[in-house]
Design brief:
The chain has about 280 residues and is α/β, with parallel strands linked by helices. Helices cover about 35% and strands about 15% of the residues. Strands 1, 2, 3, 4, 5 and 6 form a 6-stranded mixed β-sheet that branches. Helix 1 crosses helix 3 and helix 5 packs across helix 6. The two termini are about 25 Å apart.
Length: about 280
């Protein structure tokens, strides 16, 4: 089943946005293919049904698909508590906290600017930090990719890897001066995608002034789903730009066929063959 961007935007049932530095959350918001496989795999509302949701609402079917991955909250044995277990104010329901997280990531508002229906913004932010540290968002990303692979099939034959620089004016760690933005502070994002642009791995732990090639191995080693081993009938090709010149051996060690184009070669190929279409 294919979904147009307009249909996906209307359904909006996998509501996750682009926070400052959290890569897993960013991919769930930024890529239409991610929205498409979540719409199909995790049971969100189909077009034509009367029930509709806001972009940050957690639907019943989506909640059923992900609630088992929510980290369980346990008391810290090193901390003293005034109330015995079961006493005091009841904790915020996990579903409500997840909706609050999606609201912030989708709208870009401050945590303390959350509407009152989500209760305390500080509590929602604390849950976000806890779940991020526990790998919850990466788990649902991986789960969605696995189900998409079963239904549609990940395009493993041709993959692409590249880096881009992201502004991070308030970040304190993993930042560096951006050479393309007047030396402002930023981070480097290294992304591996399949032939349809579906994100398979993302690394965001380096400053904006880091060379792309330095993040190559780490990105290839952090694919969040099991990559099938290539064979003669199913090779794995990896497309890279001139910034990765000299890294062919590292690529081959991971059973990829490297395709590294020197600067200007693509332009020359287009001049020779107007119908040429590069793999990206």
């Amino acid at each position: 089943m294919n979904f147009s961007c307009a249909e996906i935007d209307k359904q909006r049932n996998f509501p996750c946005g682009k926070p400052p530095v959290y890569a897993t959350c960013w991919i769930l918001r930024a890529h239409p293919p991610i929205k498409a496989f979540v719409v199909k795999c995790l049971g969100v509302i189909k077009m034509g049904e009367k029930k509709s949701y806001q972009a940050w609402t957690v639907s019943d079917k989506f909640w059923e698909a992900v609630k088992g991955e929510i980290p369980k909250r346990e008391r810290d044995p090193a901390k003293e508590y005034k109330n015995a277990p079961g006493q005091g104010r009841k904790p915020m329901p996990a579903r409500k906290a997840l909706e609050g997280i999606f609201y912030v990531l989708r709208t870009g508002c401050h945590w303390k600017a959350l509407p009152r229906e989500y209760r305390s913004g500080s509590t929602v932010h604390r849950r976000f930090q806890e779940w991020l540290a526990a790998g919850f968002f990466e788990k649902i990303w991986s789960k969605g990719l696995e189900q998409y692979d079963e239904l549609e099939g990940i395009g493993w034959k041709w993959q692409s890897l590249d880096g881009c620089m992201v502004k991070a004016p308030l970040a304190l760690e993993a930042v560096g001066t951006n050479p393309t933005d007047r030396g402002k502070m930023g981070t480097k994002r290294s992304v591996l995608t399949d032939e349809k642009g579906l994100p398979l791995a993302i690394v965001m732990i380096s400053g904006a002034n880091t060379y792309d090639v330095k993040l190559l191995e780490e990105t290839l080693d952090h694919i969040v789903v099991l990559r099938p081993e290539p064979d003669g009938d199913h090779p794995k090709n990896l497309c890279l730009d001139a910034g990765y010149t000299g890294s062919a051996e590292k690529v081959e060690q991971r059973n990829y066929i490297p395709h590294i184009r020197p600067r200007g070669e693509e332009t020359k190929e287009l001049e020779r063959n107007p119908n040429f279409r590069a793999h990206r």
